[in-house]
Amino acid sequence: MLLRLDNVQRHFGGVRAVDGVSLEVEKGSIQGLIGPNGAGKTTLVNVITGYVPAESGRAFIESDDLTGLPSHRIAALGIARTFQNIRLFKDLTALDNVIVGMHTRRADDTLAQLGTLPVFRRDQRTRLSEARQLMETVGLDPGAVAKRAAGTLPYGDQRRLEIARALALRPRLLILDEPAAGMNPSEKHGMRVLIERLNEQGLTILLIDHDMHLVMGVCKRVAVLNFGRKIADGTPAEVSTDASVIKAYLGTGGEREVASAPGAAGLNEVEEEVVKAAAEQTPTAAEPESAILEVRDLSVSYGAVNAVRGASLRVAEGEVVALIGANGAGKSTILNTLSGVIRPRSGTATFDGLDLTTANPSTIVRRGLVQVPEGREILARQTVLENLELATWGSRGDGAGTRARIEAVMKRFPILGERRAMKAATLSGGEQQMLALARGLLAKPRLLLLDEPSLGLAPQMVDEVFAAIEEIHREGTTILLVEQNALRALEIADRAYVIETGTILLTGSGDELLHNPAVRRAYLGG
Amino acid sequence: MDFLIQLFTDPYAFYNSHTLLIAQIGINSILAASMFAVLYSGQLSLAAPGFMAIGAYTAVLMSLYLHTPLALNFLAGTLFAGVTGLAVGLPVLRLRGVFLAIATIGFIEALRLGVILNFPIKVNGEPITGGGLGLKNPDADPLGGINMVLIALAVVIFLMWRLTKGRLGHAWSAIRQDELAALSQGINVARYKMFAFVLSALLAGFAGALETNLNFFVDPNEYGVPRTVQILTFAVLGGTGNIFGPVVGSLFLTSLPELARGAKDYRDILSGVILIAVIVFRPQGIVGRGGLAIIRPRWWPQRQSRAAAPG
Amino acid sequence: MQQQLLNAISIGSIYALFAVGYTLVFGVLDILNLAHSAVFMLGAAVTYSMVVNHGQSFWVAAALGLAIAAVMGLVIEHVCLRPLRRRNAPPIAALISTIGLALIIVAAVEQGRPEHPYLAWLWVDGANSVSFPISALPNPTWHVAGLTLEAAKVAVIPISVALMLVLGYVIRYTQIGRGLRAVAENPRAARLMGLDVDRMISLTLVISSALGGLAGIMFGLAQTDISPYIGRDNVEVKGLAVIVLGGMGSIPGAVAGGYLLGLIEIVALLLFGSNVRAGVAFAALFLMLVLRPQGLFGSSLSEKV
Question: What is the topology classification, in CATH, of domain A1-78+171-251?
Fold first, then answer.
């Protein structure tokens, strides 16, 4: 056993975040840790890494007792981690990030600095070459990336860099906290390959993620947490068929995800295929004649990065249109440009006659183009009711009507009605997404922009959220949906656009794209 | 303009006629280095004038009452400032961002108003620190002290420059960007922050002691908020990416009254304009590359009073 | 003794009024507006100048002082804050730019002389300290229960309390108040909900600066001491002590903290004599930060990993 946890307990203000969890991680294996948001996975990791002290229980790595040690000592004992939200040293270069990671193995050369320069130079060279090697190990090209500020790297590279930095510790145990979040299946495949390769070299890994392909495909054993307790612990096959696990976490969609095979093609091949398919395609679902949203040749950049290049799309009244593609492909950028939060470099975007590229964000909302942003962005410290009341900001002076609409929306989402007086922070991830949707609806949208509604949600919650979206659509709201969960998005969409690195590559009806082999391979895992 | 002309055409004469100015530049540069140490490790500490005061008063009181040699007085002043830095640093270290700034402001004002003006040890009914009237320092040697200042400055600059290149400097950079990530890579954040804080206290104490040699009078009003603003301005103007930034900043701002003679009355207005202009248009400062932009600490209280680190 | 208590409440009201403006900006923008004490001074200086140099009645002068203070709020927003927001600068940048503006304002007033081409309208007394001439002020005095109640000194109490109640009500129960709270918590979400965030921020600065200017006018009235340095000497750092005591970003905290500080000062004065009085505030500040950084009313949120 490499890592052993014994009846660990930790609670925060009345909530038992970790309630008597015991876990054993076999040396040289990959251990999965899954569960709904709020189940205690990250808290458990925080306890292991010493950021949060356990109230009772013990933790051991081989023969070393971790209990009560401060974070930096635990890292020095060989436990490295990556973070759910990527915590790189953003303004340092990629190379410096990795070199800083070597801190514990680097002798304190403070005094050496002041004097003998040649010795320092030699050590520095060794460090640099080791750092470069680590970057190569995780699939980064040092030549291209080493001198760039870590914050400017593309998303996938940042995730890899964080792993390289963790490896610089020469850890005995590597904890990966949602390393594949925000990646499309071919990127995830690359991450999976990396994880397997690191494991083959003898590294023990503890993996947390919501992607069942990845977790079940790569882990030797999987532990499942719910409400701070471990509800299952076994092989992937055992756990994925466990009734309580399915009920608590997987839902029906999750089962489907587990059942399908992981993507096989490498990233470049897939891109080529998709581009080829785009060239040959004749979409049978032609773009609508009359559209309420019309985007033409939109180009948006962040400084030197061209986030969106010449994108064109249209949405007709009453449709559900999906925009799918990997993280960093430009989807959110397009939505934020439509909401008036970012201004494009060139191109046009009109909504019902209103020029979105010059209008004020508040005007755009009042016209009926409402965005439900990525990550939900609810007001956590205000109550559910206050959140909803704020959504009616634009339509003032209509007291009774407003109240009626709020009541109606709380009837549609009963959980909100129940929790109306509670602070929004107490809602679960899925419930917060409902709140965000409700808030969007209250702004009287003619076109609703949904940015990654399923992000970070457990598979079962995703079911509920998509059901709600379909219901909203059935009642007549037009929807433009951005998702990296292509399967779900294509299932409910009338039409869809596929976007990669800022350019729209494919378009067609939801059905067509679902069955398009290149799309299947790239986004649906074959 | 003749100021600059003389600098280039007759450096020797320039040196002789502007000894005090050069000495003051040197001292301000050491103060700027003190600021650099804390800013580079991500701590917005505004405590420098407080430590200066400790160094200054200790040195002068020792000279007046114990008649000990100058070097010993300076050493004592510096060490005493360092020890105080240790005592003050311990409780405030876990404070974040603006809270640390406020705590250090509290410290310098409490020191100035509470301690210096009301020092318990009295002579003829007045505190030996001279209270509000200040402390006379008849042993000052304005022109003779300059060599000491320049040598000290050279040592300090070299020290800070080399420190930032090594493991210590890398750790400081990491802490500045993201304390939690730094911890996760095995960096003992508390220890490194404390070291930076105490180092800055030592430097400020030393500068305070040195400065007493230039004036025949120690004035408690010199050690309040305006002084800390002045030192902060040096760092902001020069940029805090490396040690040379704050030094350049202090060089420029200390010489400013000489460079623009007529505008002496408008010096503060000019300082204010410079502060705003630099922060808005060139936050990395004169020396640039990173600079103040580096101080984008993740742990700055986001959305309401997240005042201290957990645990 | 009771007279001293009255003084404590009077000065506490001024501290509270000042601190509410301070904490409002911190609450909405996460920024410490260090130009606030300069606006405090400006309110007093302009009012004095209008009365003494321009012959206005006190009420007109006070109204003008208040107006100028409110306008300064817009200046702070447009010069110091908005350009930094546009480029996503860290909060420390706003701290520094407001320090810069404070320097400029104080220095400008310091330079005011009768013969000055630009500043003479604002202030002619340079670095000196002046006070309102008795004749200029409406100052009825009452003697009640052994206490001397001078309107100039005690008027600030009901005014402060009333203003703070109004502000509290607005923030909690009106749509505008909700909008401000939304911006305070999550400007991005607020923008996407259709709120004009820039306008909300401008409003915040205007309200805050008006309150600060008013506190300055009341100070000049009660303490009969007006100079370019009254901000720096009396409220700049003490204001920090107040909001720390009360909890940064909490309006009731600022109010409570203001009165608490007034009380602490008077107690220290009575027990230890006037010398220690000033240092006491900062000792209290330091202690609070060390023991309970979130203040009396703030909530302690720890960082989420």
Answer: Rossmann fold (3.40.50)
